[in-house]
Amino acid sequence: MGKRIFFVTLLIFLVTGFIYSQEILQENQAREYHIGAKDLLEISVFGLDEMSQTVRVSEKGKITLPLLGEIEVEELTKAELERKLGQLLEKKYLQNPQVTVFIREYQSKKVYILGAVGKPGSYKLLGRQTVLQLISDAGGLIEDAGDEIIVIRQHKDGPSKTLRILIDDLILKGDARLNIPLEPNDIVNIPVDKTVFIYVFGQVRRPGALNVKKLNIPTLLQVIAQAGGFSERASKRRVLIKRIDKDGKEQEIKVNVKDIIKGKKKDIQLKENDVVYVPETIF
Fold this sequence. Notes:
CATH superfamily of the largest domain: Outer membrane lipoprotein wza domain like
Strand order of the largest sheet: 7-6-10-8-9
Number of domains: 3
Number of strands: 15
């Protein structure tokens, strides 16, 4: 996990271009950002002071300006709005007007990140923002991050879509195709995968407690393999699993591991705090 956090930090550094100033990065994002309801715009026109205004975009995606009245601005970029206002002013009032639009507050488009990051919550979607940039803004991965990133994408006209990205493929293997751009209202969830224990005793080569991840608890055969395999005196037909159920009562599950090895029975999925005991053969 430590290696993974190092690589995500390095990759985020490269992707977001921290070799540039934060101001340049935000300006580039603003150019691509599509204006929406509740955004706060600062508009100035060189040589026409009465047109210099700070206005909030209405719920209908419009603003009202002196001389021009009500103007539709929703889904326009900063540059597109500057051109639109310039064209409207040029028709009646100015030759070659110099219009500047600054997006003072980004309120209309947000994304959400949950789970194993430093600062989960809602974040403003600035232009073409990617999964890694959002993870960076949210303080990076924490130690208990699981193996995947889940992106829930909500569509107005249909059911939501779930995208799953393996963290190792994105970060350790560096598959840039997986660093997908985010869309408004995306929910990014990085499940917390804490360390739990499985206990193995008896006739295995390395008995003791095994550290495993809660979201990826191994099967019985996998646990025996992690414990070094059976000893020469192991009774594979009489393996015992002790488990505490949800009511606090102890259960005992007797397993013939030879049948699992031969494919006659399915391997058993273990649970947190299971105790596996391999008795000694009586022969």
